[in-house]
Specification:
single chain; 5-stranded antiparallel β-sheet; alpha+beta; 15 helices; 10-stranded antiparallel β-sheet
Length: about 650
């Protein structure tokens, strides 16, 4: 069986890539040359906020990470390497074990300040000196503070003799191991090449301290015994075949890892060090330095299968596609609604082509290709402020003009650009001239959100928004929130990686296609697991079937834009792209029905009513028939601007 692989080894100094020769279990990936990134051909211009940045030399600005607030904006906001919280303070940090509490509309685990550490000689909030998709290092005085998702430890590595004063006294319980009880939790510390005496840790040059919350069901001594040296970066690897997509994270030769209990079981790890409770349920605690886990593969898809339509269905969809294309309004020019409009047009082109409506197909294709050529003109932003791209040399990324929803500050790039890349892949299929015209700039757009590992001279970061540990993306560029980063529209994230995969396949970029297939599969699994079909058995007070906003420290039944139940579910479905049945169709029909019922309390003639019908059609033949009838009568006002009546009908009929 053929496998597509992409592997990365990370350290505090360098990220390196292996595309094919990944090593065996228990070994770090072997380094090879980084991938070549596309040449930036658009104008260089910073158009967003002049946000303060706390970055060491050579560090690519880590936008859209779980820890982004450590690097940007006002200092002092907490971040959440589950199950811990961590917040920098002037000259040190606070940390603690979070404890989830559920209510009717949220599951909360806010920051905890049980242990405060003040580092001798540190005078500020630190600067990020290493940033990878999973882990981060802050330099504070003569100490480096390391954090990583999946590693339930705050690591301190001394670059000179250094003294750290703690807010609580630790009692010696073993060789180099101390324990303290504060608040509701027990904490441990392991010191190497130094000592802990009450509330003071003294480290020799090169020494280390590792602070941790003691899990339920184990002791500080047992936990410390499993720890190796502090983690100084996390290697990440993804691969996909026709059945499974796997993620591998490499932390260290030996350490302690924590992860969802189901993942630990699937990975076959020894997890005898107790458990933590998190906003995502129980996390197992395992003595391991590396973990690999599978999710079902989701293959990218650019069109619906209309081969089994009945004569009546074909007639209804044919009439709808003609009307949709003839009534097509002027295209928006911003980076979000403009890209959604092109996505809608691309789907109409394919439907018209499939049904033999060549005259309206030609009309829609002409509109689509003209707009794509504008977006892909490298010099267009020299003469206008819309339908074009600039490159921000400070934040290292592409900004679509006119920006929307804060995209100039690197919010939501994967949402916006996924629509555009999908449309470009559809339009340029079989059109070599168009592909040559739009290819160079859209390669840069794809690189903005889906680049591979890179060297110090890179113009884009690796996998800008995607978090390999969580299996999903983060949407806020700077994450200026007390709850850390967040993502609302899981479905637009899936659409993003589907669009990148389609574009990469068309461009013959096998490394990018491999990476996109892996991210598509992981994001689809996370969408089911966290948003649309979550296991909420540990949170009986939570009164809903889905989660809507996933944050670092909470899960919220709320959106950024509406309090309506239809919006809560609809934002997890938009735009019901052709790949949607592959990952949504495996959700339990009862779960789909319950979620649609909650969202449709005011009927289907509401915002996102079209997507509610499309989702309901996945729950069975009777629901599909009802959705078809309702779709024929749905008013135009209830059809989203990424959708059309023809696509709505075609989607329901094609299931």
């Amino acid at each position: 069986m053929t496998r597509i692989r992409v592997c990365v080894a990370a350290s505090a100094a360098v990220l390196t890539l292996t595309l094919a020769a990944c090593t065996g279990a228990g070994e770090a990936p072997s380094p090879t040359a980084p991938e070549t990134q596309p040449t930036v051909t658009v104008p260089h211009r910073s158009v967003g906020k002049d946000v303060p940045m706390r970055l060491g030399e050579g560090v690519i600005p880590p936008t859209n990470r779980w820890y982004s607030s450590l690097a940007f904006g006002d200092p002092g906001l907490p971040v959440f390497p589950k199950p811990l919280s961590f917040a920098p303070i002037e000259g040190g940090f606070t940390m603690g074990l979070t404890r989830p509490v559920a209510s009717a509309h949220a599951i909360l685990a806010p920051g905890v300040e049980d242990v405060t550490a003040t580092i001798e000689g540190a005078r500020d909030f630190g600067e990020v000196t290493h940033a990878d998709p999973v882990g981060v290092i802050l330099a504070m005085g003569d100490a480096r503070i390391s954090l990583a998702q999946g590693w339930p430890v705050v690591g301190i590595t001394a670059d000179a003799d250094v003294t750290i004063t703690l807010s609580v006294a630790f009692e010696a319980v073993g060789d180099g191991v101390g324990e303290a009880v504060t608040g509701q939790s027990r904490y441990g510390v392991l010191v190497r090449d130094g000592e802990v005496a009450g509330d003071v840790i003294s480290l020799d040059d090169g020494g280390s301290a590792q602070l941790f919350a003691v899990p339920e069901g184990t002791s500080a001594v047992a936990f410390a015994k499993a720890l190796g040296d502090p983690v100084l970066g996390v290697g990440w690897a993804g691969e996909a075949d026709g059945r499974e997509a796997t993620t591998t994270l490499t932390y260290a030769e030996n350490t302690v890892l924590t992860m969802p209990a189901e993942r630990a079981s699937a990975a076959g790890l020894p997890c005898e060090l107790g458990t933590y409770q998190t906003i995502h349920g129980e996390y197992a605690v395992c003595a391991a330095g590396k973990v690999t886990w599978p999710v079902p593969t989701v293959a990218p898809r650019g069109s619906l299968d209309l081969s089994h339509l009945t004569a009546d269905e074909r007639a209804a969809i044919r009439a709808a596609v003609r009307q949709d294309i003839i009534n097509e309004a002027a295209l928006p020019s911003d980076s979000y609604f403009g890209a959604k409009a092109l996505f809608r047009l691309a789907n109409l082109v394919l439907i018209a082509e499939e049904l033999g409506e060549s005259d309206v197909e030609e009309l829609a294709r002409l509109t689509l290709t003209d707009a794509l050529r504008q977006w892909a003109d490298p010099g267009r932003c020299e003469i206008t402020e819309s339908r074009c791209f600039v490159y921000d040399p400070r934040l290292k990324g592409m900004v679509g003009m006119t920006p929307s929803f804060g995209s100039e500050d690197f919010n939501d790039h994967h949402f916006h650009y996924g629509y555009l890349l999908h449309a470009a892949a559809v339009a340029a299929q079989g059109d070599a001239e168009l592909l040559a015209d739009i290819g160079p700039v859209l390669d840069q757009v794809a690189a903005d959100i889906a680049s591979g590992p890179s060297d110090a001279g890179a113009v884009f970061p690796p996998i800008r928004a995607f978090d390999p540990f969580e299996g999903h993306s983060w949407a806020s560029g700077f994450a200026p929130f007390a709850d850390a980063n967040n993502q609302e529209s899981s479905s637009e994230a899936v659409t993003a990686w589907n669009g990148v995969a389609l574009w990469a396949q068309l461009r013959g970029n096998s490394a990018l296609e491999a990476r996109a297939r892996w991210m598509l599969s992981a994001e689809a699994e996370a969408t089911r697991r966290l948003w649309l079909a979550p296991n909420l058995s540990a949170f009986l007070e939570f009164d809903h079937t889905i989660s809507v906003l996933e944050w670092g420290s909470k899960r919220d039944y709320a959106t950024w834009f509406s309090a309506e139940p239809a919006a809560m579910l609809g934002i997890q479905l938009i735009p019901m792209s052709p790949v949607a049945p592959a990952y949504l169709g495996v959700i339990d029909p009862g779960q789909i029905s319950r979620s649609v019922a909650e969202a449709s309390a005011n009927g289907s003639q509401v915002q996102f009513g079209d997507y509610l019908l499309m989702y309901s059609a996945l729950s069975g033949l009777e629901a599909q028939a009802r959705a078809w009838d309702a779709a024929l009568e749905l008013p135009d006002s209830a059809i989203d601007d990424a959708n059309s009546r023809a696509y709505l009908l075609a989607f329901v009929a094609s299931i």
